[in-house]
Amino acid sequence: MRNWRARLTPLQQRIYDRSASITSIQLTPTPQLLEATTALAGALVADDQLRVEALAQTIVNHICGRLKVRTVRVHVQGVRPSNRRGELHGLYTQYGGGSRSDSIQVWMRTAKRGQVVAFRTFLRTLLHEVCHHLDYTYLHLRESYHTEGFFQRESSLFRAIVQQPREEERKPPQSLSAMVSKILAARRQGNGKAEDVEEEEGY
Fold it and tell me: Do 79 and 61 share a domain, yes or no?
């Protein structure tokens, strides 16, 4: 990225550096935003393109609404365009310096096999294009560059709207033999903890 920056004009370098310095977007998600994000996973599994597009639009509307910027139209397409360089995942298009005609396109099928993309891949692509929109409308940057700060902002949005499991839910389930050993050890101690262990483990 730094070598690419060297090819920019002094004005563009200042814009680039400001983008690089902003590492997150503070977003408090609405319940509707969280619900739409959760539902998006199921719509992708069901290969329901119209439903995916509607949910993607809801996600974008609520992000823009919380940040008090105009929303942008989302179009969900089928198979990704591709060439020798790779596949196009998403595209943000701005018209006339920014207007209600601005749009986001996201493709939901891989070019090589025509498979529906994974939920996290699709959502990150959508948020990537949203970040381009926010560079202009929220951060008021004159250009939108792929800086380290840009990708960190994308990740901050992802963390804000994807509900991470609680710490205890992330722990791998305990094997039956380990549970039995734990109970027997407590009984040998004779301190009455065996019942507590059984209750805690759901037995």
Answer: yes
DSSP state letters, 70-133: ---EEEEEEEPPEETTEE--EEEE--TTS-TT-EEEEEEE-TTT-PBPPHHHHHHHHHHHHHHH
64, 10: one domain: yes
**Model confidence, pTM:** 0.79
pLDDT tens per residue, range 7-43: 999 999 999 999 999 999 999 999 999 999 999 999 9
Taking a C-beta distance cutoff of 8 angstroms, is the pair 39, 27 a contact? no
Strand 82-83 and strand 73-79: pairing? unpaired
Q: Which domain holds residue 177?
A: 169-200
| The total number of structural domains that make up the chain | 2
